[in-house]
Design goal:
7 strands; alpha+beta; two-stranded antiparallel ribbon; single chain; 5-stranded antiparallel beta sheet
Length: 129
Amino acid sequence: MSHTVKIAVSFKAAEIPILRKALAAKGWQLVENAMSRQYTGNAGPYRYVAVNPGKGHNAYDIGINVVGDNLELMTDFYGGSIEASLGMQLQGLKQEYAAAVIEDEYQNATISRSTDAHGNLILEVEQWG
């Protein structure tokens, strides 16, 4: 059964540029003031929409609204396109977001990326001076 749900994840509204970078690393685009593709058709409008790069009939987007200092994400996981691209429970996006925060914080550092046997992102940060 398909339905739109609120995603239990914490992203701060002030960190939209970091979320944009994390989504871009996964092939997604973040647009402002748009409708979101979902099972029932287009939903919204949302302050931001993470546009799914998939082209299938179930390539649903993620609608994002600003609620106080936080972002509220709404989507439909039916069909698996979001999970295939961003990971189960958005784990891949969360990892890219964390990496983007670290890269933003340590701009003068050398940062190496790798993945473990389970596909988890591993960052090694070397900072001098």
